Sequence to fold (259 residues):
Amino acid sequence: MKLDGKTALVTGGGGAIGGAQARLFATEGAAVCVADLFLDKAETVAADVAAHGGRALAVSLDVRLAEAWTAAVATAEHEFGPISILCNNAGANFRVGFDEQTEEMWNILIGTILTGSFLGTKAVVPSMRRGGGGVIVNLGSLASIRPGGGSPGYAAGKMGLLGLTRSTALSYATDRIRCVLISPGHVDTPFIRANNPYSPNTEETSIDNPDNFERRRAATPLGRLQTPEDIARAFLFVVSDDAAMITGSMLTVDGGAAL
Ligand SMILES: NC(=O)c1ccc[n+]([C@@H]2O[C@H](COP(=O)([O-])OP(=O)(O)OC[C@H]3O[C@@H](n4cnc5c(N)ncnc54)[C@H](O)[C@@H]3O)[C@@H](O)[C@H]2O)c1
Fold:
């Protein structure tokens, strides 16, 4: 039990990667606050954790709103005690280039990816201090390494997380709070498969299209897309004491795609 006695707050917790983290952390003894823009998705994951004997709570959270963060952290701390782990997974993407990307899209992307992680960090730090320390993990992307020309808001947001991660790590090291960026490659989830409002996909972009799936597979030297569980296991390592001296760094979990 690597996370016995810990409380984790997982954003995008109703999604594939966040959901896999919630399930894995709970099997390692953590109590998990599953937070998502869509409460029904968070409730499904929390119910699944409970059905397997774990402790979980679902909350509605739009990571772009500071007041929503205050409420989510208060609820989680009241239920389970001080937050020791924060996973900033919530993300968005609009897969259009500079000419087509509107200011509204840009604001959603920067708001969800960058401002959301900033606000989450500010919201949990007092709770982590009360508990004697903690770990914050931001979720990067290949775009944190090689943003390409696809979606300027996604590129700026995911690159920005590099700076935010390093700034957080240095700012709070003396509070025994670590911060790490985990950058996956191509992960088979609704983010790149489905047509969600925060991450729309068409035949042109979805991995439901076998050509798109094969293009991503072929771009991964280890020969397959990642699963949400591949990513969750890396998160478990980083939030556990096995990574006690790791802070401010980036870990890629991409089958070699960024090489
Ligand atoms: N799937 C991939 O190939 C891949 C690769 C690299 C990085 N990522 C990152 O993973 C994250 C997406 O996770 P996933 O792949 O499990 O997809 P997913 O669509 O299953 O999950 C994303 C979750 O985030 C939630 N969300 C969206 N906006 C939110 C907001 N404003 N506040 C709170 N929650 C919000 C959604 O409701 C959803 O449950 C993003 O940060 C994305 O950049 C994904």
The chain has a mean pLDDT of 98.
